[in-house]
Design brief:
With about 325 residues, the protein is an all-alpha fold. Helix content is about 75%, strand content about 0%.
């Protein structure tokens, strides 16, 4: 299958960087403390910079609204299914938020965008440019939604609702005020909302998408810091995974993969039909919805006291399985 080779080329670096982290940990070059601190840096500094630039450099176009609406509606639907259905998959209360986040959060920037570029690589140049713009613009609101939802479902863990053994140690539903304060203080939310504010200001000033944010040296500095988010998180993930943790999280991670790579795209098909998406917009939305679990899920689970082992295993397994799911999707939607 011609699609499989290119998709593997896109996904293989994810696996290899995780493997590098695991090898370095086993060789004693990296320690668990270093992995934890690296993850903390990604959460508080690098990933917010990446999100800020990704949103601020995009643009606003009415053509992207149906695709973005399809992705957001599918995200909300699968998040509800995952959160409410977690007990049916044997997910304990302490891991419920992590399970939900791993199901709805996609690795769109590092996997989705390259796969979309490949899928439309043979189209006329005008179509390619239009699709690339659509892909970037439809992703921005989803980044905001992902992070707000993630904070909401992981807030009970961060607020100490469960003890070290997973037993209830406080209210499972924190007061709304505490949730709102948690959202407002979360660095990923701050990065998203700051990027949205910068985007609005740039649009009002007529600054074209892709132009530097601020002065050139500030833009390049933010870009350098933000570019560490992907490899930094993957290295931390690899250094944190152990065979024992993978075995312990094997069943819930496979449940995540089923919902993420099978049920979520089906929701996408439903909402794409309801919103009358054209062929190109529908394929873009479905590619995004069939992407593996984002490595940011592991970052947030570890920083907000969720089930980091489950999140790490889910990232690894969905990345493996998505190579087949994406190849099938592209084979069913020839251009």
């Amino acid at each position: 299958m011609q699609y499989l080779g290119v998709i593997i080329d896109t996904l293989a670096p994810v696996f290899l960087v995780v493997l590098l982290g695991a090898v370095l940990r086993r060789a004693g070059f990296l320690t668990e403390r270093f992995a934890s601190e690296l993850n903390r840096f990604v959460f508080w500094v690098s990933l917010p910079a990446f999100l800020f630039l990704s949103i601020a450099r995009s643009g606003s176009a009415a053509d992207s609204v149906p695709a973005a609406a399809t992705m957001m509606a599918s995200t909300l639907a699968i998040a509800a299914v995952a959160y409410l259905g977690a007990p049916l998959f044997g997910i304990p209360p302490r891991s419920r938020g992590t399970f939900c986040q791993c199901v709805f959060r996609s690795n769109n920037a590092y996997v989705g965008l390259p796969v979309i570029a490949f899928a439309f690589g043979g189209a006329p140049i005008e179509t390619q440019m239009a699709v690339h713009s659509l892909a970037a613009l439809s992703l921005a609101p989803c980044l905001v939604l992902y992070n707000i939802l993630a904070v909401i479902v992981l807030m009970p863990n961060e607020m100490g609702a469960f003890d070290g053994n997973g037993a209830a140690a406080g209210p499972a539903r924190p007061p709304v005020g505490r949730i709102l304060r948690g959202i407002a203080r979360n660095p990923l939310i701050i990065g998203c909302l700051s990027g949205a504010a910068a985007l609005a200001a740039r649009s009002a000033l007529g600054i074209p998408p892709g132009a530097p944010v601020g002065t050139v040296f500030i833009d390049r500095t933010l870009n350098q810091v933000g570019s560490l988010a992907g490899p930094g998180a993957l290295l931390a993930l690899g250094a944190s995974l152990t065979p024992e943790r993978i075995r312990a999280a094997w069943r819930p991670a496979n449940a995540v993969a089923f919902l993420k790579l099978a049920a979520c795209p089906l929701f996408g098909l439903l909402f794409a039909s309801l919103l009358h998406l054209d062929g190109n917009a529908r394929l873009v939305a479905l590619i995004y919805l069939t992407c593996p679990t984002a490595v940011a899920s592991f970052v947030m689970a570890q920083q907000m006291k969720g089930d980091a082992a489950m999140a790490g295993a889910a990232v690894a397994l969905t990345t493996l399985y998505s190579s087949v799911a994406l190849a099938i999707l592209l084979a069913m939607h020839p251009l």
